[in-house]
Design brief:
eight-stranded parallel beta sheet; 15 helices; 20 strands; five-stranded antiparallel beta sheet; 24% helix; disordered N terminus
Amino acid sequence: MHENGSVAAPRTGAAPWWRDAVIYQVYIRSFADGNGDGMGDIAGIRSRLPYLRDLGVDAIWINPWYVSPQADAGYDVADFRDIDPRFGTLAEAGQLVAEAHEHGIKVIPDLVPNHTSDQRVWFQAALAAGAGGAERERYVFRPGRGPHGAEPPNNWLSVFGGPAWTRAADGEWYLHLFAPQQPDLNWAHPQVREEFASILRFWFDRGVDGFRIDVAHGLVKDTGLPDLVAPDDPGHRYPDGEHPFWDRDDVHEIYRGWRRVADEYPGDRKFVAEAWTQSPRRLAEYVRADGLHTAFNFDFLQCPWDATRLREVIDSTTSHLSAVGAPATWVLSNHDVMRHASRYGRPVQDPVPGQDFRPRGPVDPELGTRRARAAALLMLSLPGGAYVYQGEELGLAEVEDLPDEVLQDPMWERSGHTEKGRDGCRVPLPWSEEQPPFGFSPQGTTAGPWLPQPPAWKDRTAEAQAGDPGSMLELYRAALRIRRDHPALGDGTMRWLASPKDTLVFTREPGFVCAVNLSAEPWPLPAGSRALLASGPLDDGRLPQDTAVWLAPGAGASAASL
């Protein structure tokens, strides 16, 4: 690795860096607290850049750091051109970008184009303008239905629960697909498009390497605002492109314009879309040659621990994306879903259509950890790029017993206290020491972390795991080192090899095989093969259940012959 403090070696070859980058997601308020107020910040990120360098990642994606009232953890942006004082200053952001680049790490901020904060100057002007005011055209205002317009304009529902409309003081209603503090923009308005092109240039001029696009599938709405066909059935499927506000075909025109902006700059600037679609074929529409560069693979994230289902998702993803010349990206967790160490420890892991992906039922922590280790080797050996959510390299599980009084996710309030929401995957990281705040805040700090950390995390700190060859942290470090150095890994192709039921075995040339055993029977490793890395102990030349291994063929053999 880079224990000597050296800069990560750049990848060789002419392919753009983003085609096979491993990108680490920094949920800024929970990564590291530099000023002692109990909330993560830019100073905290800067202090941990050597850790990220030594982990072996290529880039960091930073969740929203802009000026915001924080009604939805920063996804309600009031000013896209400045840093929220909770997190630092614009000058500090520039220092972070420069220092990250010195460590060989690229920086990708989050961008939230579907909506703004209700405190943004534009929206305050819209409220002041009154019905019919030109300022309202940049958002989605409509008169209500029923007597005196007292009913919402249609039956659309908020992702966070309840109606997607709130009534202004003058009687008109405004659309918010998320919280009422997050009014949706009208992307048919030229000023909205001009504003975001300007925002892109503002940050590209300051050296950022790309953007993650929040709710990339939601910007364009059916102008007729028709009622949902089945509002009580979140899993109802519309014909492709015909949902009134998700994944409409006209959204791609917006991103073609953004691609032209990115292409004005040197260094292969990139976009990654958070686009929830009905199929990999629809996802591929976002990453055509003149559109966005990459998109998150949520089918892989949501797939249960089942060999047949995983293979179907891998095949479908690679075939549809390669058909448009785009790489796949693989992800196991993020700030919106239950951590996979907890998902995989449950007997039923399938998502409920249209609902937050948080499987219910008792969890087996040991089973979840064992599968999470195997899943990491599977993900990091697949062709394309990968995302690592902060803390997964420490083996962190979901914190499912947070007291009600500390919950801050708007989903908790909007659901009438029936859905605890996403705070359990957002608990601040444990870095060192034997008790909270586990090095998250500077020593001597009196303010506790913004969400409480479990005392049991004392065994999960980065300090406790460093140097322990059996730890999750050292597994990730070793995997990322091999991935960087092995010529077969990263962008490229794969080929399945014959294997028993409930196993996944594939080769990548030159000279690499990944095998994952999801069956109850140990799988004998091929004769002459050599283990490069395993997610758990091997059993006398056999691969145990819920274990993965990376193999190299023996002398004179090829991977395909194993």
